[in-house]
């Protein structure tokens, strides 16, 4: 059985940030993790993709967003284009305008912390 996949949009190399904690939480539960940050580079041995379009998976099981609303509103169309089974808008990224745009694009965002979910639920 293949691993579930997740893109962490707003991934961070800073261990104090939730965009980093999410990477480790998902890895610990068996996910194949694709960090996404326009800076690119590497986080803990994982390639960081500069956009969702670069992620080498056609359809993701989960996309978890850690972006301020002003950035998230710009990325939501990329999320719709990429496709996913679950879109998680973590606390702070779930502003009304982001939610409204997500719904307009046919997405059904989950407003909750994906870290808590993955640790409670396990690997998908």
TrEMBL record:
<dbReference type="InterPro" id="IPR003781">
    <property type="entry name" value="CoA-bd"/>
</dbReference>
<dbReference type="InterPro" id="IPR036291">
    <property type="entry name" value="NAD(P)-bd_dom_sf"/>
</dbReference>
<protein>
    <submittedName>
        <fullName>CoA binding domain protein</fullName>
    </submittedName>
</protein>
<dbReference type="Pfam" id="PF13380">
    <property type="entry name" value="CoA_binding_2"/>
</dbReference>
<feature type="domain" description="CoA-binding">
    <location>
        <begin position="1"/>
        <end position="93"/>
    </location>
</feature>
